[in-house]
Amino acid sequence: MVKQIGLQVWSVRERMKNDFAGTIKEVAEMGYAGVEIDVVIGTAAEEVKIFDGVALKEGVKIFHDLGLEIISVYADPPVGENSNKILAAVASTGCDKLVTGKNPEDFATLNKISETCELYNH
After folding, report:
1. Which pTM value belongs to this model?
2. Of 91, 63, 88, 48, which Cα lies nearest the Cα of 7?
3. Gap between the Cα atoms of 68 and 117, Å rounded
4. Burial of 16 from C-beta contacts in 10 A (0-12 / 13-18 / 19+)
C-alpha cells in the first residue's frame, strides 16, 4: 500500500495571504492527498477562520472541492470559554484529529512548564 502524504498548510501561509484558493489549488495539483489546517477562534461575534480571514466553512469547501482530505486541525487547546467552539470547529471539518501545541517560552521555566502541564491535564 502506498502511503499518501499530507501538507501542513502553515508552511505555505505567506502565499495563502495573497491567494488562498489559488495556493490550495497548487497544493492539490502537486499531488498531496490531505492537509493539516489551522483554525482561529475569534470573539463570539466573529466567524471561525482559517489563517488570514478565510471563513472556516469556505476554506473547508475549497479543500474538499479540490479533493484534499483534512487530516488534522491545529487549534488552541479546547479548554476554557472557547472549548465547545473549538471542538465544534474541528468537527465541522469532517476531521477527528485535533493538534495543539505551545511555544518555547511556555517551557522556559519550571513555573511555565507546570502551567502548561495544568492546561493539558485539564
Report:
1. 0.85
2. 63
3. 34
4. buried
